[in-house]
Every structure is written in structure tokens, then in C-alpha cells.
Please model this.
Amino acid sequence: MLSKLATRKKNMSDGLTSGSKQSDGLTSGRKSDGLTLGSKPKKSAEMKKHFDRILNLAEEKAGEPSASRPGRGKLRVGSDCAGMGSDLAALTLFGFREQIETSMWSDSDPDKRKLYRHVCSLLDLDVSPVCKDMSKRNAATAPSCDVYVAGYPCPSYSVLGKKKGVQDPRGQIGLYGLEYICHHKPSCVVLENVKGLLQKKHQQFRQLIKDVLEKLGYTLRLKLHSTLDYGIPQSRQRVYIVALLKDAIVTRFHWPKKVEFKKKWLKEFLDTHLRGEPGQRCNIENYVRKYGDRVRQGPYVLDVGSSEAFQSAKKYVVPCLTRSRLKGKQTGFFVPKLDRRLTVREAGRLQGWPEQMLNSLLKSFDESTVGASLGDAMSINVLGKILLECMVSLGHVSREEAAARDHWVNSATTRSAADRAWQLFR
Model:
């Protein structure tokens, strides 16, 4: 075992070795980034053929030049499972609005497609043609991009889902994303999914991602990030994989620095002047029995949209916002001290959206539509900080310029960060 680890360490660079102190978290071996891998799960013959086809495509395209354009010019942005356009909002709020060009995007959800187009209109961006079904897309002829962002469907990997991974049709969507990357080799790739992706049963999919991207000439990094670590009081852990083309890297990539948590954040993000209305109140006796009477008047937010076995309460922090909790006539979160449910507007703030954009979204669409998409979306503060570090590494912005653009560090309050960034960069 030790000899195998030594061989792996010798063959990989940038500290991204299994068992090394700094690991990409994608390979098997010793624990890294909270990840331990054991025996390989079985893979169907049909799925093996699909895996092999992608690996062969990566080998075929490895020697071809990237279609990505270097330098500080326009940034063609492509997004699979684009949702409501969190990547476009994130790039805008971190100062790249003038460089953005929408290149290609996909989403199977008609409501999300409407929201994406609306976000593009708010950002004065042209809307490129949409692909409604990635599995039917001709990846070779699809438009190229410089920045590729994808949050592939998570139910197949979620600990609360079916956990079938790539054996589930939804879990196979990422395979078509890898095919696109093989053909176009964008200089920056950011992939996001739920923490469940790190389970050992999904080892083969992670290994495929690693093998394909390394064959294509990328440097990979993987890390579990929480929205709470970057200025917003939401306990939302997500896996982020960053891949940068080695030939395009100007300086070493670094993960964003965490923002020191402050208990006052929760109060800043809630409309404390809004108090309970009859239709929004709920029975919290189960929580009182479980956590004590302090949940009634303390700074707690309760997840009341779950079954009793999974009920939870967070102090100074909002539980992870999800699609199932944010769709419908009222959200699945309750703030006892305010005697009311969390609002969709507050959920938007807790996902990093500026008030100006939320005003327009909630005026143009019903709350259930906006809420459901917010629950599926990437947190803008996390995604934006990661994309900013990618742009530094690729030479699109200096580290000094990047520091000045990060308003989740520079604003007086983290609540005002998105609004301040909108005023400056929109």
C-alpha cells in the first residue's frame, strides 16, 4: 500500500496526490477533505461503455488546442444545468460584468429557463440559444466558452435522495458535461454538487472526472465549502471542483479565505420588523421537547418542512435552503422569535442575491417559482469568490484588484455586500 501511494505521489503535481497533505479529494486512498474511499462499487456494462467512451474522447482531444481565449478580453460563459443564472450574477457582483458574454447554457426546467432569461435582461446580457436536454446535445458543435460552470442534478448523490449516482438517469447528466469539456476545453471549469458526492459509492464518477480532466491538461482542486464560511449565515455545504488548464495558468490558484463568523449576521439578513401572521405560524412543540424552551425566544431558525426524524434547529444560522422547503405557499423554515416563516426574499439574500435583483424577480414571478430555483442554486458569495480566484490564477485580474472587488470582505455588513457590489459593478 505504501509503495502504491508513493508511486501516485511521484506521478502527480501541485500536491494533488492521494494521501498527501494537500489532496484533490478525487482519488482513492487515505482520508482527504473529509473523503475516504474503499472498495469500488459495481458498474453496469452499459455505464462502463459510456465511461470508456468519454475517456477515449479525452485521450483523442488531449493534444488539440483549447477553444478558450486567453487574456483580459471578453469572458464567454457557458453553463450546464444553468438554473436561474447564479454564475452570471456572481461574475457581475465580483466586477466582470463588462467582460461577460453568454456563450451557451442548458436547463431542462422551463421555470428556470424563464428566470435565467430574466436575469440576463437585468444584466443587459444577450441570451444565447438554450439546450433543453444535454443528453441530446451535439457537444462537438455546441458553442465554445472560456468559463464553464455546472451544478449537475444532485438528487442522485444526495444522502436524502435515491443515492444511485450514475445508475440514475439524472446522475448521468454530468457525463454529457464532461463530453462538452473534452471538445472545447474551456480554460476554467467549476463543478458543484452536494456533499453526498463524496460518498465512497460515487468513487467511480469522481475518478472519471479526475481522469478525464487530467488527460485534457487541467490542474484539479476539490473542496467542501459552506455558505456560512463566506459571510452569509446559511449552513449549506457543497462540493466544488475547480479545474484550470495548465497552459493558461499565470499564477497558482488559491481557495478563497474564510470570513470570520459573527452572530449578528442572522439579524442583518432577516426583516425583523415583520412579525407572525396567522397563516404562517406553526406548532413547534416537537422542537421545544428536543432543544428546550430556548428555541422560542432565542436566535433560532427551525427546519419545519421535514419529517419529525429529520427536524433540526440552528442557532444564529439558517439551515440549508432547499428546493422542497422553498416552493409552495410558504417556506419550510420557521423563526420562532419572529413567530413567522422565513420569506423567499430573505432566502434570496441568504443565497447572495442583491435586493435590486430580488425586487425584480419577485415582481415578475410568483414566490414559489423563485423559491424553488433559489433552493437549487449555488450560493453567489461562494461561487463568486471561487470564480474570482480562478480569474486571478488565469491572469484576468490582479490579486490587488480582486481584493478590492470582494465586498463580502470589504462591506460594513455582509448583508450589504451584494447590494453594494450591484451598485458598483452593475
